[in-house]
Amino acid sequence: MAIAATCRGLSGMTQINMTDQAIRRTAIVTGAARGIGAGVAGRVDYAAAKAGLIGFTKSLALRLGQHGVTANAIGPGFVVSDMTRVGAQRRGRSFEEHQRIVAQTIPVRRVGQPEDIAHTASYLVSPEAGFVSVQVVYVAGGPVD
Fold it and tell me: What is the pLDDT of residues 9-46, one digit of tens each?
């Protein structure tokens, strides 16, 4: 199910918008996942979907680059969200305790905030990033693998 939702959904949206986007210089940003090359224990579908999304993004960048369109993926690390809150509940921890524990495993010793991802996406779609394409930008507070 994760593969269908991720890859088919993105592919369908891209096909609908490709003609309009190719008319002018624009940027496409997709969401990958931190350290996906190593896989995700117990989540084969999730890892496969995210790996497919990275391949899709790179292929899209190569296909549309001739029209001035850039395409990149953002690979977030642990970011405060409803999804990470559920992860804390599954482990029987308060969300605050879970964040403290996770922060100790991140080189910058803090968890990510939604704004960290938003700032990166803003840069990638800006004119200043017009020469940045076919990249996975990890916003994870340090090395991912």
Answer: 555 555 545 555 444 556 777 776 655 555 566 778 87
Query: Both tokens of residue 77?
Result: 């690390």
Q: Which residues contact 140 (CB under 8 A, 6 or more apart)?
A: 34, 35, 75, 76, 77, 78, 106, 112
**How far does CA 45 lie from the centroid of its chain?**
16
Q: Is this structure's pTM higher than 0.85?
A: no
Whether 123 sits among the annotated catalytic residues: the reply is no
Instruction: Name 110's Cβ contacts closer than 8 Å, sequence gap at least 6.
Output: 103, 141
- Catalytic residue of the set 22, 31, 39, 46: 46
Residue 37 vs residues 33, 47, 64: alpha-carbon distances, Å: 9, 8, 25
pLDDT-based confidence at 112, cuts 50/70/90? very high
Strands (E), the chain: 27-31, 70-76, 135-139
Two structure tokens written together for 94: 């308060």
Bridge partners of 137, per DSSP, are: 74
82-90 and 95-103 are packed helices; what angle lies between their axes, rounded to 10 degrees? 100
CA-CA-CA-CA dihedral for 99, 110, 77, 89, to nearest 10: 0
